[in-house]
Amino acid sequence: MNPAATIVLSALAIGLGGVAWRISRWFTLRIGPEHRERPGVSLVAQALGAVGRSMSSRRLAGLFKSIVWEVLLQGHVFRQDWRRGAVHLALCYGMLYLVIFHALDDFTSTALWGEYAPTLNPWRFVRNLCGLLILAAAAIAVRRRRSAPLLRRTRSSADRLAIALLAAMVLSGIVLESRQITSPAVFDAMVDDYLFDAEPDEIEALRTYWQVELGGAGPIRPRIEADARQYGKELHTGFCAACHDHPRSAFLSYPLAKLWKPLDGIRRGPGSDTALWYVHFITACLGLALLPFTKFFHLVATPVSLLVRSTGSAAASPAELRPVRRALGLDACTHCGVCNQHCAVAIVYRVNANPAILPSEKLAALRHGVSALTLGQSAALAEGSFICTACGRCTAWCPSGIDLQDLWQASRDDLARQGLAPLAGPDPIRKADPPPAPLAPLADEVRPFTLGAPQPPETFWACVQCTICTSVCPVVAVSDNPHLDLDLTPQQIMNMLRLQLRELALDARMVWDCVTCYQCQEHCPQGIRVTDILHELRHESHRRRQAAACASSAADDHCAERMP
Amino acid sequence: MTTGRYLYFPGCKLEPLLPRYDRSVRRIMAALGVELVARELNCCGYPFRDQDPFAAVLAAGRNLALAAREGLALMTPCQCCFGQLKQADDWLRRRKDLRRGVNAVLREEGLVWEAGIGVFDLLQVLGADVGPDKIRDHIRRPLEGLNVAAHYGCHALRPSRVTRFDNPLAPTLLENLVEATGARAIDWPLRLECCGHPLRGKNDRLADKLLLRKIEDAREAGAHVLATACTFCQIQFGRANGQKTGRAGDAPPPQAVLYSQILERAMGLLDTDWGS
Q1: Last residue of a domain, which of A224, A249, A283?
Q2: Domain count of chain A?
Q3: Which residue among A307, A466, A474, B2 is least enclosed by CB atoms within 10 Å?
Q4: Which of A283, A309, A344 is the endpoint of a domain?
Q5: Which residues of chain B neighbour A387 with C-beta distances below 8 Å?
Q6: What is the 3-state secondary structure (H, E, C) of A322-336?
Q7: In Å, how far is B41's CA from the nearest CA of chain A?
Q8: In this structure, are strands B73-76 and B119-121 parallel, antiparallel, or unpaired?
Q9: Nearest CA in chain A to B168
Q10: Which range of residues forms the domain containing residue A223?
Q11: Global pTM?
Q12: Which residue of B has its CA nearest to A537?
C-alpha cells in the first residue's frame, strides 16, 4: 500500500472509531438521578424506539422543519445575529464543498462531471472561493472571541485548536496550489505524461509559453522568438488546455505563485511540490482523525441535538432517555458563548472569577459527569449551580438546542448526592470544634464590602434585650420549642454579638431558618438592623466554607484569585 | 410618579414558573394604558445576596443603570426583586465605597449607577400611577361577594425605611386595590406575616408550617381567595391550592390567586380558571 493510502485509511479509522466512541458515551455517561443501574445497550434500543415513534407521529412535521430550517439553513444561528449566521453558513458550506468535491473528487466530481479537472474552471475558482470564505469566517470568529470581554475570558484551547486546524487545512492548500502553478518539476512531469514523444524544441517552446503567459517558473531562455511562442501556444491548446485554464482564476494561489518565481531562478529544487502536497494531505487527514476529539464533533452531535429538541423538552421525554439527551447536549455544545451573553447572573462573573457561574463553563465542567470532579472542582461547580436562578434564558437561546435547564437540574441533583446542597444550616464540621479563640481584628477578615456585621460591638450596645425582635419573629412563633429548633432567638443572637461571641451566633440554626421577613428589623425600637445582620452572618459562613473548600484544592486557580 | 411608562422587570422566575403572572400583568397594564418596555435585564441579585453581597448589589445596580440609560423607572411584579432593587439602591446611595466599586465594574460596559432611578412595585403603579378610580372605571365584571385576604410580600413592606412601599404596620394599598374590583377585602390577623417561601428547599417543614398557619388564619377570617402580588408568595401559597386543610366540616381553605389575575378577571379579560 502506498503511504498516502496508509495515512488516509488510518485517519479514517481513527475518525470513525472516535465518532463511535463519542456516540457510545451518550449511552454510558450518567448525569442526573434517573435509572442509574440501567445498562447502556437497552438504552440504545429505547432511544431508537423513541426516534421511531417520533417518525411515525405528528411530530414528523416539526422534525422536517427542524431538518430544513435548523440543520440545513442553520436558522438557529441566524436567530442570534444574521451576521453570525452568514459567517457560520459560509464556513459550513465552504468546508462541506471542499470535503465532498475537492478532497473526495475521485469519487464525486469526476463521476458527476465528465470534463472535471481540478485545474479547470469553475472548479478552480470555486475552490479558491471556498478557501476565502473559510479563512474570512475563521478571522471573524477570532475577532469576535477577542473583542467581546466575556468571550475573551472564556476562550479555551479547544476553540483555538479548531480555528488553527481549519486555517492550516486551507492555507496549506493555497500554498500547494501556488507551488503547483509555478513548479518546473510539475511541468516536466506533465510533459513526460502527455507529450512523451515531443521534440526538445517543442517542449522548450511550450515551456516558454508556460513561463511567459501562465506564471511558470525557471530561467527563461534567451532570444524568444515570436513564432516559437506562437508554436508553444498551439501546443498548449492542443495538449494542455483541455485540463488547464489560465491560473489567474485561482485568485488566492496565483498572486502567491509570483512569490515562488525568484526562488526558482536560483535553484530548481525538485520535490518541493510533493512535500507541500504531503503537508496539505496530512493536515486534511489530521482534521479527519481529530474530528471526534475536537469541537468539530459538533458536526455530528449538534444536528442530532437540534432534531431531538424539535421533539420537545427533556422533561417531556421518557425518564430513561433524559441522561442520553444530557450527554448528547454536552457534545452538541460548540462553546459559542451565546448562553453567557443572555445569562441573568453572568454579571457575578465580573467580580467572582469562578468560571462555573457561566452556563458554557458549567457545561464544560460536566463533560465527564459530576463524579469525575475533584473536591475543589465540585465546590466551584456547586457555587455556580446555586447562583444560577434557573431563569431558562440559556436554554431559550442555545443555538445547539441543548436543554440546559434540564442539565442544571440534573447536575444539582448529582451535586446534592455528593453532599453539596445550598447551605441551609450551620457548618456541621465547625460544630464539633472546640470553643473558638478570641476573634482576630475584624478589618483583616472582611471583604471590602459588608452591609452590617461583622460590626464593632458598639453597634449592639443600643440593644436593650427587650425581646421585641423575638416576639415578632414568625419562625419563633411556629416553633414548638425555639431553643431546641433554633438554638438561639434573634434577640439572643444580638446579645451574642454584643458580647463578641460571634462564633456562637454563627452556629445558631436561627441564622439559617430566618425567613428574612424583616419583622425584627422593622420593629426594633433601637434601630438595630437585625435581619441585615443575620444575612451578614450567613455570608460569613458561606465565605468561610468556600475558603475551606479552596484550601483543600489549591490547584483551582479561581480560588487563588478570589480569596484575600 | 405619573409616568405611564416603565422598564418592565419580570424577574428570573416569572416566565419559567408563573407564565400566567407575566401574561396577566401585560394584559392589565395594556388595558390601563401603562406601557411596559421590555429589555433583557439580569438577575436582581436577591438569590445570591448571602453568597456574595457585593455581586448582589452589582447585579441590582446594573439593572438600575440600564433603566437610567433608557430614561425609565423600573416596575416589577416580584416583591423580592423589588426589595432587592430598593435595598441595593439604598446601599449605593449611602455608601461611597460600594458605589465606587459597582460603578468601576459597570463603566466597562458604559453604564453608571446614579441616585434617583425610580423602582416601583406593580401594586404601587396600580395604586398611585393608575389609581383605584381609574381601575374602577375599567371593571366590567365586579367580583361582588368575593372575600379576599390581601397578602403583602415581606420584601415590599419591610424594611420600610428602604422600600417606602406603604405604612409597614397598617398598609392599605392592596386592600384598596382589591376593593376596586368589587370584592371585599377582609381583615385577618396574620396578613403581614411571611409566606415561608424563603425556607423552601432549605427547611421544608418550617416552610410548610408558616404556609399552613397563614392559610388557616385566612380561612378562619372567611376568605374565599388569598390575593398575592409576588412571584415567590404565589409559588408558595400555590402549593396549598386544592388541598384540604383544617378539620372536617370547616370551610374550604382560600385559593391563592395573583392580584393581577383577580383584576384581570374583574376587567373582563380572563374567562378561564384562575390557575391557567
Answers
A1: A283
A2: 3
A3: B2
A4: A283
A5: 47-48, 51-52
A6: HHHHHHHHHHHCCCC
A7: 7
A8: parallel
A9: A522
A10: 180-283
A11: 0.88
A12: B50
Q: Cβ A451–B210 below 8 Å, yes or no?
A: no
Amino acid at A557: D
User: What fold does the segment set B142-266 form as a domain?
Assistant: Rossmann fold (3.40.50)
Quickly tell me which residue has 510533459 as its cell: A191
- Is the residue at A184 inside a domain? yes
Q: What is the pLDDT of residues A41-66, one digit of tens each?
A: 777 777 777 777 766 666 677 778 88
Q: Which of A346, A475, A542 sits opposite B206 (nearest CB)?
A: A475
Contact (CB<8Å) A519/B50: no
**For residues B219-235, average pLDDT:** 96
Residues A438-470: tens digit of each pLDDT: 444 333 333 344 544 445 666 677 889 999 999
The rounded distance, in Å, linking the Cα atoms of B148 and B139 is: 17
> Cell numbers of A118, please?
481540478
Contact yes or no for B211/B237 (Cβ under 8 A): yes
Residue B235 Cα, gap to closest chain A Cα (Å):
15
**Residue in A346, A512, A518 nearest the CB of B159:** A518
What amino acid occupies position B71? G
The answer as to whether A68 is a domain residue is: no
Fold of B5-122: Glutathione S-transferase Yfyf (Class Pi); Chain A, domain 2 (1.20.1050)
Q: Is A111 exposed, middle or buried (0-12, 13-18, 19+ CB in 10 A)?
A: exposed
ipTM: 0.95
Band (pLDDT 50/70/90 cuts) for residue A186 is: confident
φ/ψ of residue A524, rounded to 5: -60, 120
d(CA A525, CA A491): 12
Residue A458: its pLDDT value, please?
A: 65
The residue whose grid cell reads 438521578 is: A33
Query: What are the sequence ranges of the domains in chain B?
Result: 5-122, 142-266
Nearest to B40 by CA among B58, B23, B63: B63
Does the distance separating the beta carbons of B59 and A386 come in below 8 Å? no
